[in-house]
Amino acid sequence: SQELEQSPQSLIVQEGKNLTINCTSSKTLYGLYWYKQKYGEGLIFLMMLQKGGEEKSHEKITAKLDEKKQQSSLHITASQPSHAGIYLCGAASNFGNEKLTFGTGTRLTIIP
Amino acid sequence: DTAVSQTPKYLVTQMGNDKSIKCEQNLGHDTMYWYKQDSKKFLKIMFSYNNKELIINETVPNRFSPKSPDKAHLNLHINSLELGDSAVYFCASSQRWAGKKETQYFGPGTRLLVL
Q1: What phi-psi label fits residue B108: left (phi over 0), alpha (psi between -120 and 50 degrees) or beta?
Q2: Fewer CB atoms inside 10 Å of the end CB: C or N, chain B?
Q3: pLDDT at A78
Q4: Nearest to residue A31, comparing CAs of A82, A78, A75, A96?
Q5: By the CB < 8 Å criterion, does A108 face chain B?
Q6: φ and ψ at A83, to 5 degrees?
Q7: What's the pLDDT score for residue A58?
Q8: 10 Å Cβ neighbour count for B49?
Q9: CB-CB under 8 Å, B105 with A98
Q10: CB B96 to CB A92 under 8 A?
């Protein structure tokens, strides 16, 4: 079965600084989703990557899927308090998206 | 308007009781899911329904029984609750297209605490 490892597990960053979260898969990624979770809320969809080398950006968040399609990174530029939360990567199987396997999560804290 | 909604948001109950969690989506999706997030925040799929038909059942105890009365609803009934059932349960939905990957949209979660 596929396993996703996220690093770091937790991250404390000063407001305004850049940061990167990594997601490494034990198998080839056929679709990689990034979600953000705040306490007491559900998962908020951020981005989906499918092709090797693909890069997507939304506001100050950029996600990339490496060429070999076994790792993805999420980069936040000039972090803000609103970026705080738990970031989860989720992998779809090569047959469809019925089953998402999630990573271990990265807890991001932004300090003023 | 809430896209994927769950009730209740919090559920505190005694061991051995039977409880249900409800989920509704107004996105017009044909596939719905139940996920369980444990105390370590590890999120794992439990069930998936497509057009009211069960398509994924991930080694979940028989005490858990999902029911989908229609495409927009997927309820989760849990019998004889155990301490280990304490977790956050998330409902999600997506539209299934052959050969295409569509985003799953999640509800706010139901926090279940079994005492």
Answers
A1: alpha
A2: N
A3: 97
A4: A96
A5: no
A6: -80, -10
A7: 86
A8: 23
A9: no
A10: no
Q: CB B61: neighbour CB atoms within 10 A?
A: 12
Phi first, then psi: what are they for B85, rounded to 5°?
-80, -10
Three-state SS string across chain B, please?
A: CCCEEEECCEEEECCCCCEEEEEEECCCCCEEEEEEECCCCCEEEEEEEECCEEEEECCCCCCEEEEEEECCEEEEEECCCCHHHCEEEEEEEECCECCECCCCEECCCEEEEEC
Cα end-to-end span (Å), chain A: 41
**Token pair recorded at residue A21:** 């979260």
Q: Whole-angstrom Cα distance, residue A94 to residue B99?
A: 9
Which of B41, B94, B107 minimises the CB distance to A97?
Answer: B94
- The answer to whether A90 touches A105, Cβ cutoff 8 Å, is no
Contact yes or no for B115/B12 (Cβ under 8 A): yes
Beta-bridged to residue B77, according to DSSP, are B20, B65
Identify the band that residue B93 occupies on the pLDDT scale cut at 50, 70 and 90. very high
Amino acid code (one letter) for B89:
Y
Distance of residue B37 Cα from the nearest chain A Cα, in angstroms = 10
Could you tell me the two tokens for A60? Answer: 């100050």
Taking only the tens place, the pLDDT of each residue in A5-18 is 999 999 999 999 99
